[in-house]
C-alpha cells in the first residue's frame, strides 16, 4: 500500500476488517474506513482495542478535514495522538510515529484555521485525555 508508507505489514492473525480499513484509507474513503474498523474495535479487548480506537480517530480526523471541519479534525487528531502514543514507535504492523506525523501534516491547514480559544480547547482536551488514559 504505497500511499501508506507507515503501514509495514498486515499481521497474519489480523481481522479481515483491519485489511479492509487500510484499503479504504488508501482510497481516501475515510468515513467507510472508520465504520469498518469500528466493527472490529467493538469485538476487541485489551490494548489492541485502544490501538484500534486511535486509528479510528486518525481516519476521522482526515474525514473531518476533508469536510472542512477544522475544529473537528483537530479534536480527532488530539485523540489520535494521545491514544496512539503508548504504541510508538511500532505496533501491529504500523510505524505509529510516522502515521501520526502523516495525519498531522495532512490536517495542518485545519490547525492553521483555529483561533486562540479553539487552540486552548484542544489543549484542555489533551489534558483531560492524558488524565483519563493514565488512570487506566
Class per helix and strand makeup? mainly alpha
Question: Which value, in Å, is the CA radius of gyration?
Answer: 14 Å
The largest beta-sheet arranges its strands as 1-2
Residue share in helices?
55-70%
Distance between the termini: 34 Å
Shape: globular
Structure explained in plain terms:
The chain has 136 residues and is mainly α. Helix content is 70%, strand content 3%. It has seven helices and two strands, in the order ααααββααα. It has helices spanning 16-26, 30-42, 47-66, 70-84, 96-106, 108-112, 116-135, and strands at 90-91, 94-95. A two-stranded antiparallel ribbon has the order 1-2. α2 packs antiparallel against α3. The radius of gyration is 14 Å and the shape is globular. The model has no long low-confidence stretch (mean pLDDT 95).
Characteristic terms for this protein:
single chain, 136 residues, mainly alpha, two-stranded antiparallel sheet, 7 helices, 3% strand
Write the layout of secondary structure elements.
Blueprint: H1 16-26, H2 30-42, H3 47-66, H4 70-84, E1 90-91, E2 94-95, H5 96-106, H6 108-112, H7 116-135
Antiparallel strand pairs: 1-2
Helix pairs in contact: 1-2, 2-3, 3-4, 4-5, 4-7
What is the structure about, briefly put?
This protein is mainly alpha-helical and 136 residues long. It has 7 helices and 2 strands; from the N terminus they run H-H-H-H-E-E-H-H-H. A hairpin with a 2-residue loop joins strand 1 (90-91) and strand 2 (94-95).
